[in-house]
Structure formats: structure tokens, C-alpha cells
Amino acid sequence: MLIGVPKEIKNHEYRIGLTPAAVKEFVTHGHQVMVENNGGAAIGFTNEQYEQAGATIADKPESIFEQAEMIVKVKEPQPNECKMLSRGQTLYTFLHLAPDPTQTELLIESGATCIAYETVTDRSGGLPLLAPMSEVAGRMSVQAGAHYLEKAHGGSGTLLGGVPGVAPGKVLVIGGGVVGTNAAKMAIGLGADVTILDRSLPRLRQLDDIFAGRTNNVFSTVDAIEHYSARADLIVGAVLIPGAAAPKLLTRDNIRAMKEGSVLVDVAIDQGGCFETSRATTHQDPVYNVDDVVHYCVANMPGGVARTSTMALNNATLPFGLALANKGPKQAMLDDEHLLAGLNVHEGKVTYKAVVDALGEQLGFSYTDAKTALGG
Ligand SMILES: NC(=O)C1=CN([C@@H]2O[C@H](COP(=O)(O)OP(=O)(O)OC[C@H]3O[C@@H](n4cnc5c(N)ncnc54)[C@H](O)[C@@H]3O)[C@@H](O)[C@H]2O)C=CC1
Ligand SMILES: CC(=O)C(=O)O
Ligand SMILES: [Mg+2]
Fold this sequence. Notes:
- By secondary structure, the chain is an alpha/beta fold.
- The protein has 2 domains: about 1-120 and about 305-375, NAD(P)-binding Rossmann-like Domain (Rossmann fold, 3-Layer(aba) Sandwich); about 130-300, Rossmann fold, CATH 3.40.50.720.
- It has 15 helices and 15 strands.
- The strands form 2 sheets. An 8-stranded mixed sheet has the order 3-2-1-4-5-6-14-15, with helices on both faces. Strands 9-8-7-10-11-13-12 form a 7-stranded mixed sheet, with helices on both faces.
- 1,4-dihydronicotinamide adenine dinucleotide binds near residues 118, 197, 240, 268 and 301.
């Protein structure tokens, strides 16, 4: 199979779909790989390294989109990329369609087979291709929060760890999954006072075991959100209903009641955000204020540590990517229900229920079962 790896074009996005090491795996399995000129250069993956791994270098994205049978990316395709996709081509990347009608419409029109990293599943009910980026974003969320709590960066001037004689800052994590757990680990490491809210009792039990008394783990209700948010210095939004638009858990009233100079980091912004006042921002211009509360809502946080993130992402995407290339996308998905769960759009049909629930009525499409769409 001919695999194409274009350079990412989202604001300050320096990750790339395949590392040179991953290219070598595809080439060893008998595939051909085209990588866009300097696609990984910003994070130290040079054209020479890609060539040594067996790739050819394409001078422009158009050559890749015209020829490749499978496009491997990181971020959701931007409109000009969507327009270059065609029927018979497979797109393997993050999509986040539920909050994004424009992209959804363009992918339907393209006729391409679009597999979303964030909805591929594993045997234990996890999301193995989202998990590494959630680990990164969870860890970064507290780093970003601590930075914006500094007075010169617009915050209240609170040190999360406190010092002997002064109480630590309060961190509230809403959603105790992968992002939430990693945020909590960093916040504990800094010495903060950490509360995690989740609405899953089994998950709260696991958090109790993981953190062994070092966090308060509380069942998530409207009342709990109201109570803990009013006291928090930093709130990390980390909820997920897979593939669906994020529920707005923190209301404008909750935000008004927060202390001046507190910080919100809405990691769930890639699924639309879980705070009422959230709107997506970029690494270039990451924050804005509402009601004297700093909002950090960067939709591609791992892009900020692109070298670590690219390697972590490739560790997870490579085995599924090889299966897609070795067996062909259709057979690979029919053989593996977890990879099949990643299929969101195929030949103009939307095959992911939560995307249909979010956008079907607005855009006029209905749900097609993934297996049926593939003719399996
Ligand atoms: N902005 C960025 O750059 C990045 C964003 N993300 C996003 O972060 C979000 C979280 O991802 P993960 O931690 O991997 O998901 P996860 O599935 O591991 O965890 C989500 C948690 O939210 C909980 N939850 C769901 N509804 C809730 C509610 N109403 N109240 C409290 N808890 C609730 C679930 O029980 C679960 O424990 C996702 O939207 C993901 O796409 C992930 C990586 C990077
Ligand atoms: C998951 C996601 O949105 C990212 O890694 O950018
Ligand atoms: Mg206020």
C-alpha cells in the first residue's frame, strides 16, 4: 500500500503522523511511504532520517493526497485537506466530528473512509489511541494552569504547592479518566490540594486505590460542581462521552462565583468543551478571560510537546496502522471490532452513533452501522 504523511497545518502543530521508526516498520512490511518535505523537521525528524527509513519525500501535500491510498495524520483535516480526499482513500487520524459540522460535511462529501483515533477501542473498554495524548494533555494541564495562576500571566498569584505556613492551592479535576488521573498526578506532585469529580462509581473506586488518600474523590453532581468550583484555584475539564459533544458541566453562574484570577483548563475542548464559556484557542493565543477567570482551551495541547507526543502517539497507532496496510482497510476493520469502532465516515455514510446524535438532524444524515457500510 502507498501511505502518505502530510505535514500538519494546524496552528503551532508540530506533530507528524509517522516517526522515521514507524516508517521503517511499514517499509519492512512491504509498503511504500511518502512524507511531506520537512514534515517532521521541527521536532528533529529530518528528511534524511525519513529517507534512511525508506520513505520518499514529497514536495507538496497535493502530491500526497493525489497518490496515497492511506493518509496518516495527527489532527483533524482542515477544510483544504478534506477537499483533497477522495473515494477509495483511507484517512487515519484524530477527527473529533461531533462538535464540528463543517468537517463532518466535508468528509461525507469526500467519499473517503475516515477512521478516528479517538473512537478506536480496546478489550478493557479504553480508548488506546486517545490515551497517550490524554496522558500528555492531562500532565500539561497542571503545568499550564500553574503558569497562568502567576500574577504576570493574569492569574491570582497563587502557588499551587503553597509553602510551609501557607495553604496549597486547590485543584478541581472534573472527569477522572486518563486526562484527569494524569492531571491529578502532576497536581499532587506540586503539593496542591486535589479533588476529582467523576460520575462513574467504579472509576471513583479505582481512583481511591490509585491515589490512596492523596486526593478527594467525589461523585459528580450539580451540587458538587457548585461547591468545589467556588473554592478552586485551578479547574481541569477532563470529561468524555466517547465520540460525543462534551456535556457543559460548569455553568456561567458557577464561573461567576469563582475567585478572581482562578484558572480553567478545558482539555475536553476538542469535543466542544465542558465549561459553558469555553471556546477553542490555539498555542499562539491560548487564553482569554470571562468574569475575571482565565480560560485556557487549546484543542491540540499535545502539539505543545510535539516530540514526546509524536513518539507516544506512534507507539499506539502503529499496530492498527500496520493492520490497515497489511490486510487492506476493509478486511482489517471486519477482523477487529476495536478498529471497526474507529470508523466514523465511509463512502458518504456516517457510521458512528454519537456523531449522528450530535449532527444528523442538523446536516440531514442518519446512522449506518459500520459493518453494513463496509458491506461485511
Ligand atoms: N485538548 C487536547 O489537546 C486534548 C483533549 N483530550 C480530550 O480530553 C477529554 C478526556 O479524555 P480522557 O481522559 O482520555 O477520557 P476518559 O474516557 O479516560 O475519561 C473521561 C472521564 O469522564 C467521566 N465523566 C463522563 N461524564 C461525566 C460527568 N458528567 N461528570 C464527571 N465525570 C464524567 C467518565 O466517567 C470518565 O472517567 C476528551 O474529550 C479528550 O478528547 C485528550 C487529549 C488532548
Ligand atoms: C486528542 C487531541 O485532540 C490531540 O492530541 O490533539
Ligand atoms: Mg467571580
